[in-house]
Design goal:
This protein has about 150 residues and is α+β, with helices and mostly antiparallel strands. The chain is built from two helices and five strands. α1 packs across α2.
Length: about 150
């Protein structure tokens, strides 16, 4: 599996708009990233798949405190073409995201970082995430059918 990523954590994806930082950008830079939200079980499997893969495969990942969902940060523009069943990709336009290292603040009350910025690689490549989510769904289905 080949992974292509920018050195910018939320660089544009496939012709998306360029990263626009506020004039006051410092340690609390708020990039424009989209967020792919998936059920926790599938998301955890996908994180494992991505981390076992060759190269840098997984970017920052959020979880809700109820452990029902995981959210993968992906480059802006991903939401426009996202069509993976069982998941949602939303444009954040940088709202609520603070990727300051070493202490990034989760963007939503009741959430926390599973893989915080700085500990994780760059934003997750959407094509690689799509493949990992598909593989995770197949693994979960196979495990459930064995019961």
């Amino acid at each position: 599996m080949e992974i292509s990523q920018s050195t910018d954590p939320c660089a544009p994806f496939a012709g998306g708009t360029s990263l626009a930082l506020p004039a006051s950008a410092a340690s609390n830079t708020v990039p424009n990233c989209d967020l792919v939200t998936v059920p926790a079980r599938q998301g955890l499997e996908a994180v494992d798949i991505l981390r076992r893969g060759a190269g840098d495969g997984v970017g920052p990942v959020l979880h809700d405190d109820g452990c029902d969902t995981l959210g993968f940060l992906v480059p802006p523009g991903t939401a426009a073409a996202w069509d993976v069943p069982g998941s949602i990709c939303t444009e954040t336009n940088g709202r609520g995201l603070s990727l300051a290292v070493p202490d990034p603040v989760p963007p939503v009350d009741g959430s926390d970082w599973l893989l915080p910025p700085g500990d994780a690689d760059l934003a997750t490549d959407p094509a690689v995430l799509r493949a990992a989510l598909g593989e995770a769904a197949r693994l979960i289905e196979a495990a459930d059918n064995r019961r």
